[in-house]
Every structure is written in structure tokens, then in C-alpha cells.
Amino acid sequence: MELINIPNSTNNINISNNNFNSNNNNNTKGVQLTFKNITYKVENRKYKKQLKKQTEARKKKNDDYESNNKPASFTDIKVEKELTILNNVSGVIEKGELCALMGPSGSGKSTLLDILAERKSTGKITGKLLINGKEVGDAYKKFCSYVTQEDVLLQTATVFETIKFYADLKLPEMAEEEKIKRVEQVIEDVGLTKRRDSKVGGILPGGIIMKGLSGGEKRRVSIGCGLVTNPSLIFLDEPTSGLDSVTALSIMKTLLDLTKTKGCTIIASIHQPRGEIFELFNKVMVVIKGKMIYSGNNILQYFEQLGYTCPNNMNPADFCLDAAVEIGDGDRYDEICTQWQKIWENEIVNEITQPFIAVEKPKATPWSYQYYILLKRSWKDFLRNQGNFIARVGTAIVTGLLFGACFAGLKETEADVQKIIGVIFFLITGLNLTPFAVISLFLSQRTLFNAERASKVYHSFPYYLAMVTVETFVVLLVALINATICYLIAHLRWDASYFFYAMMIYFFVHLLSDFLICTLANLTGTSDMTFAYGSGFCVIFMLFAGFYVPVQELPVSFGWLHYINPLFYSFVSLMQVQFKDLPIKCSQPANSTIPCQFNNGNQVLSYYGIDEWSRDESFGIVILWAAFFFTTSYLALHYLNREKR
Ligand SMILES: Nc1ncnc2c1ncn2[C@@H]1O[C@H](COP(=O)(O)OP(=O)(O)OP(=O)(O)O)[C@@H](O)[C@H]1O
């Protein structure tokens, strides 16, 4: 087939509706993006399975041949260790262009967009990304901003706070006044001036619904977050998905305005836009099965030359998608891909329309500053979403009062020894179980964290520290309220040194349980599994804590479990605090012949087989367990359940 002469993509940008010529844009901010020979390969996880299937099919073919003397119907499938998701994809997008990335589902649009935005952390990527014709290394990030398909935003933050959060973390060196000005400007640019102080809203963790922004407004906030750094290149993954057609058109017009007024270069993957939206684009790129088959401003003409004519009155976007599907499924796919590759190599590849600009490597925001900003946000979020906090504190008060009522006015007598031990054990059990109330909170925070980490807004460690700081404060309050009420009414060992020591232990019991649940939530990523594993752990912890069965009576085969049980060490240290060297009044009448079971607290400790354990060492082990779960929780947050792309 003869080569089709494609109008030079940079010289003839002539859009019917808006008469916009990207090269006439006076703004100096935008850049030209060229991507050359981008190939993306991932490991084929089904390789072994596919290979086995192929071997079996081959064997069957041979067997059939030998037994029937005729070949079985068998097509040899190509099994490869690596899957090629994008294959030698190239293109150029001019300064100030609004470019649509189109293609059938699964063609590789999102993958290409992720690679162009340098967001891919898995697989092997080869090829070049050039800004105004030159590779700029790490400075590339300074040009880019990426807006995800889903709006993952903090529900309790206002529009201003959400965008300011990005400004704080991405522009650490900018003066506060200037930052505020920038944020206000962005809010105006995305058309949210009237909603500046409205909360984002949505379903809060735990199910409470907070009134807030509409779907379109949330999309505008997400775009605003991407605009705050004044990026030259903006990538949007399906910016109109999930929106009604009027809102979608209005969002796209806002984006077009950004190309005109700020000279931004915008690339948006788009599925099936309505006609008016399609006409807003200055350029269309079509990817089919991981290969580029067209890039330019006159796709209908190109398809016509290929033999696909758009019928009158048909939405051109629908037509393009239908044609793309047909090409992908048809026999001419390879020929059309090769043809486009030749056009690219012969006519487009070396066009550099913008002068080279030297850009410094972006400066990293210090972790201490990230922690400060994240703590500020977490604290505000906590204050605005107090449902969970009130429920936890309320439960602590009620259970404290009920424990107190059941065990009120205990005395240091032989008759009350069992009840005192009961109070201690049930307090630690209650504090061990309370963190189950936080599962949905942890999981919801995780979703936001994943999205923000993918945007490289902050490092996971300052984020984790900020989250843990707020959580530790709540844990401290809950533990102290619960245990203090109970101690007040039940009259456990009350001298200041014993009381505060006991409170510290209760605090750490609660803290380590909280970190355990956080670890499980971060490990599993689902509430059901966190609940299932968490309850399993808690039951085992209780059983082997030394209360129901004294440690010396535990079965030999499982008895060792108490050595790795944080609740056992908590129980031991609290029992030591309560009973060590405590005189106990005998409950038998003076003339009774029945001997007193306990004359002092040490005999109680001995009965439970924990008299040899030291209070401080046991408490030290409780602290170590808290530190252990603190670490596992962070490692699971950092390494597991990442965004899947
Ligand atoms: N890491 C990966 N491992 C295996 N397959 C992958 C990986 N990343 C992408 N793919 C596959 O590559 C193809 C392209 O995916 P991509 O999400 O880029 O398509 P898309 O054009 O954006 O699709 P859609 O319009 O449905 O979102 C899909 O078949 C997808 O399953």
C-alpha cells in the first residue's frame, strides 16, 4: 500500500470549534513532549500454567496422531515469559495542545499515560521521554502532573485545604502568602471559587455520610490538586468517566481553557466522548493492542484513507472507536501499524518546535516538614470525624462503669482476690478488643495513602508517623479513661506509684493491640480478613494469658505459646503491680480450722505460676511487642497493598 501523506501534526492544528492554534499560544509555560519507542513489558505470571497447557495439548496431538494416524486439531499458542503491553509506541504533543488518547478497552491507554507521567513502578520500560527535544532526567517530574480516574480525596477537608495540602508538600520553598495566592488562583481556574470552603464530603470510614461536593466538583478538585505546581504537562486518566455529559463537557472546557490561558500541554485518555467533547481536542492519538496507529489532528481523514468512512450524523468518537476495534480484530492490523510507524519515522520524529529549557532537579521536601503538614491534616480530620472517637471513648466509659459496678469496693482480702484478678484480666481483654472499631478507619486511610503515594506527594514514613501520633493520642485517652474509672470504683491498688505504673501498662496493651489490627489491615487490605485474623489472634492471646489456665497447668505441647503472647506479659506485669508484697487479710474466722489460701500477694502470684517473673521485665516485653507491631504495621503499609498500576 502507498504511504498516506499525513498533514504535519505541528503545523496544521486547525480545530473547527475553537480556532485554536497551539503554536500561536503566547504563554511560555508549556512544553513539547516527545515520546520515542516506548516499550513496556511485564512478567507473564501465567507462564508456567500456559506452558503446561501447551505441553499437554502437544502431547494429546501426538497421542492422537499415533493412535488414529491423523493429526488432531491443535493450534500452537505462543507462550512467552514476558507480556508486551506497549510495543514501540512513539508520538509528539505540542505545547498548549489538548490531546486525546483513544483506543479500545485494554489497548494500553492507561499504561502509556502512566509511563508518560513516570508513575509506573513495575515492569520493564524502554524508550525516551523528551521535553522540547531533550531528555531532562529527574527534572522531568517538575513538568508533570497526573490526575487519576477516581477522585480519592479526604472527605473532611475543604476544597481550599485539599489543594493547599498539595501546595504545602509540593512547593515547600514557596512563601506562605504566595502559596495561598497560588491555591486561590487554582480554585478559580477550576471553577470552584464558590465552593472554596465546602467540605469534599462523601462516605466517611464507618459509613457516616458527610454532605459535600458533587461528582463533577470533586473531579475539579482532583484537577486542581494537579495544577497547583503550575505543571507544563498534565495527564488525565479518563477525566470524564462517571460524569454526566453536561458536567463532562464543562470539565473538558476547563481543561481547554488551561491550554489556552496557561499554555499547558494536556493529554487525557478518553473512552467514548460525546461529539462536542471530541471536537475540543487538538490532537487524537489512537492506540490498539499496545501499538500506536495514528496521531494527529485529522483522524477522520486518515481513517477514510484506510477505507473506514465515518457515516454522516455519527458521533466521530464512536466511529473512531468502532474503527479501532475493527482494525484491532482484523487482518490489516499489522499492516496499519507498520504504515503508521513509517509515517512517524519519515515525517514526524525529528520535529522539535520549542527551544531547550534547562530545569533543575526538583528539591525534595524534608521529612520533618512532611510530618508537620500530615499531622496537621490528620489532626483536623480527627476533629471533624469524631464519630469513631466518641464511640471508642463512650465504650471505654460504659465498660469502665460496668466493670466498676460489678466489682465495686473490692478489699485486699482473700475473698476478693479472684475478683481483683478478674478486673485486671477483663480490662486488658477489653483494651485488646477495642481496636476492632478502627478497622474501617485504617482501610479508608490506606486508600487515600495509596493514591497520594502514587502521586509522590510524600514519603510513607512521615505519613505513618503522623497517623500513629493521632492514633496514639486516642489510644492513650481510651485506655486511661477505661482503667481509671474501673480502678476508682473497684478500689484496686491505689497508691500513686502502683496506679500510674498500671495505667502505663494498660496504655501499652491498648497500643500494641491497635498496632496489631493496623498491621493486619495493611497486610490483608480488607476488613473481613482483618477481622477474621484479628479475632483469631485475640482468642489465642486470651487463652494463653495465664488467667483461665495458670501457666504451669498449660498443656506441654502448646504451653510455650504464652512466651510469645503479649497479653501474658501484660497480665504478669499488672499482677505484679497489684499483688507483689501485698498483705492479704484472711477471710476465715479466727477460730476456723480451714487454713487461709492466701496470706499475701506473693502467694497469689505463686498460685498463678508468675511469681518468678519481674514486673519491669514483663512490662519491657509488652513495650517491645508494641514496638514490633508498630514496625510490622509500617512495613506492611510501605511494601504491601500498593496501587496495582
Ligand atoms: N502489570 C501488568 N501485568 C499484566 N497485564 C497488564 C499489566 N498492566 C497492564 N496489563 C494489561 O495490559 C493491557 C492494557 O491495559 P491498560 O489498563 O493500559 O488498558 P486501557 O486501554 O487503559 O484499558 P481501559 O480503557 O479498559 O482502562 C490490559 O490487557 C491489561 O490487563
From TrEMBL:
An MF annotation (GO) of this entry: ATPase-coupled transmembrane transporter activity
Keywords in alphabetical order: ATP-binding, Membrane, Nucleotide-binding, Transmembrane, Transmembrane helix, Transport
Membrane-related topology note: Multi-pass membrane protein
Residue ranges crossing the lipid bilayer per the database entry: 389-410, 422-443, 464-492, 498-523, 530-551, 619-640
Subcellular locations according to the entry: Membrane
SUPFAM superfamilies on file: P-loop containing nucleoside triphosphate hydrolases
Name of the protein this chain belongs to: ABC transporter domain-containing protein
Lineage, uppermost ranks: Eukaryota, Amoebozoa, Evosea, Eumycetozoa, Dictyostelia
